[in-house]
Amino acid sequence: MSYNNILVEENHGITTITINRPNKLNALNKETIEELHEAFKDEEEDDDTKVVILTGSGEKAFVAGADISEFANFDVNEGTKLAAKGQEMLFDFVENFSKPVIAAVNGFALGGGLELAMACHFRIASDNAKMGLPEVSLGVIPGYGGTQRLPQLVGKGRAMEMILTAGMIDANQALNYGLVNHVVPQEELIPLCEKIANKIANNSLVAISSAIRAINANFEDGVNGYDVEIEEFGNCFGTDDFTEGTTAFLKKRKANFPGR
Ligand code: COA
């Protein structure tokens, strides 16, 4: 499939999706959101893809936000639809993706860009990265899950300060907040993401999908995460990966998971 705004590259089970609008600091316009949705849908069905790395092109930005030029004239109805559609089509889709998604935050991650990074399963940043939710400086609030995911990740007080000041934090402060897991020089960012992705890809991807669902259940309204964990745990016992993993351990050999 060919896209206008993103690049998709698969290499030994690791698929890198790069948002490719460097002249607009990779701002998320409608078409980019749709293309990202299509690409993630394809990767979900592609058995060759074990882990996805999501990043931005160029050295300056991961994503500098939703494309302001597209919504500057919206009314209440259009604004509501923009948030609802975007959340469903991309942000919730990525959060609930059955394969791990790592955000490689290679520069500015602002507004919808930080929201997209937060929808990923975890984040690794280059040392030039800057993160923030500047929406209130534009007279609007985060609409792609930022008011919910930022407090989940950094705590309510820090999220309040970031959102209400509209300020940016640098990569080290993001590390200190637990918003990113590692900070490395820019040239080491993708290699580190790939190293971690390879480590993940050696494990049972069936069990990994179960773990993602169980962890996400902790943050879903009206869902008892412990009950989801029990169910997902039990289901693992019916998989070939479980048979292979336990047999390999007992026979003191490396597991070769069939992925079912
Ligand atoms: N939407 C649309 N266009 C954007 C954008 C966004 N969120 N962020 C950057 N761009 C565009 C700029 O308009 C500019 O385009 P132009 O060259 O056609 O004028 C280009 O990307 C480069 O950005 P520029 O502002 O010139 O770069 P800078 O280095 O001076 O500043 C930022 C970088 C990130 C501080 C600045 O671009 C910015 O504040 N962006 C908006 C961030 C934001 O509020 N995001 C939340 C949106 S809800």
UniProtKB/TrEMBL annotation:
Q: Which UniProt keywords apply?
A: Lyase
Question: Known InterPro entries for this protein?
Answer: ClpP/crotonase-like_dom_sf, Enoyl-CoA_hyd/isom_CS, Enoyl-CoA_hydra/iso
| Superkingdom as given in the UniProt entry | Bacteria
Q: Does the keyword Lyase apply?
A: yes
Q: Which protein family is it in?
A: Belongs to the enoyl-CoA hydratase/isomerase family.
UniProt GO MF annotations: lyase activity
Q: Which Pfam families match?
A: ECH_1
Name the GO terms of the biological process aspect: fatty acid beta-oxidation
| Protein's name in the database | Enoyl-CoA hydratase
